[in-house]
Fold:
Amino acid sequence: MRIEKDLVAASATPLVLGILADGENYGYGILKRVRDLSDGQLEWTDGMLYPLLHRLQRLGYVTTEWRTPPEGRRRRYYAITDAGRSALAEHQRQWAAVAQTLANLWDGSGPLPAVGRA
Structure:
């Protein structure tokens, strides 16, 4: 299933903040976590993630720190701030309202048939 670009973009900030709320992470780790959480339906690229992380840093929602783990290569780790946690809480409220509205609309109707398959 292909998820439209606008929906992917709208969900990007709460996804990254939610992942970082579980603990600090680095770019590739965030990409892998998104893929795992979506069962492979969301495949983000570096070109999508890093501009978002830079924007979240400018907004004060994340902090960064370069580290070199004993067994690996140097990585830039991202951690959520208190302002990021507040923004995440607001995103959660908004997404819950959208999800509930759609559930109310589609309750019991099941998946819509694809055009040409009805």
Summary: The CA atoms of residues 35 and 43 lie 6 Å apart. Helices lie at 5-21, 27-37, 46-58, 82-106. The longest strand covers residues 62-67. The chain has four helices and three strands.
